[in-house]
Amino acid sequence: MLINRTDDKPWDAQIAYRLIYPLRNTFVTPNYLTSLRLIFGILAGVFFALGEYKYSNAGAFCFVISNFLDHADGELARLKNQVTSEGHIFDLISDALVNIFLFLGLGIGLMQTSLGVYASLMGVIAGSSVAAIFFMRNSIEKNIGKKNARQPHKSGIEAEDVLYTLPLITYFQLDYYFLFTATLGAPIFCIYVIKDYIRLKN
Is residue 141 assigned to a domain? Predict the structure, then answer.
């Protein structure tokens, strides 16, 4: 059985564990996977910034790979007993950069639409908000506890898993609506996370 429904981990983390398990006795380190995650994430942003349909589709697939590797590096670190504060910081920085590149790239690519220069501004707002969410979750984990930092999930599905639909969004040319939704939704969710942090701290 590929996914264990009784496991408290999200479904993509469970799949990542099974895929990287054969790497436990190899030279591959968690930081290798984090580096790959960062490379694919930057590539995604570059492809989106080109603004053409074929490149947007390529960017979407690069981002999905990057997002999946974000779980794989942590699973490998636990398997190899190589969990370090330096690796965690590298992972956190990669998370922030990948999301900034994604939305900034989307914004630049959509500047040729009716949004014009506002598209890049929307990309900055969405990207910086998502990056802030990652940093706030890290603060919650560091100061209050890892359990409190976890995203709410049901049946192994987290809110961020919506990003796995990005290839469908680009295929059906819904990039415009995706960026618009993220520009509105990401700051709102960021405020929610900040309020949650204050609540938990008190």
Answer: yes
Q: How many domains does the chain have?
A: 1
Higher-pLDDT residue of 154 and 162 is 162
**Angle ∠(71,11,17) on CA atoms, nearest 5:** 50
Q: Looking at beta carbons, which pairs linking 21-28 to residues 24 or more positions away fall under 8 Å? A: 21/79, 23/76, 23/79, 24/76, 24/79, 24/80, 28/76
Domain that holds residue 50: 11-151+159-201
Q: Output the pLDDT for position 145.
A: 65
Contact by Cβ (8 Å): 62, 41: yes
Reading the block at residue 171, the tokens are: 């295929």
With a cut of 80, say whether residue 148 has pLDDT above it.
no
Record the tokens describing residue 126, joined without a space.
């969405």
Rg of the chain, C-alpha, whole Å = 17
Tell whether 5 is covered by a domain: no
- Its pTM stands at 0.88
Please check whether residue 139 lies inside any domain of the structure: yes
CB 107 within 8 A of CB 120: yes
CB 47 within 8 A of CB 105: yes
Domain membership of residue 3 (yes or no) is no
- Which tens digit of pLDDT belongs to each residue from 87-104? 988 998 999 999 999 999
pLDDT at 7: 59
**SS3 category, 60:** helix
The pLDDT score that the predictor gives to residue 147 is 58
CATH number of domain containing 119? 1.20.120.1760
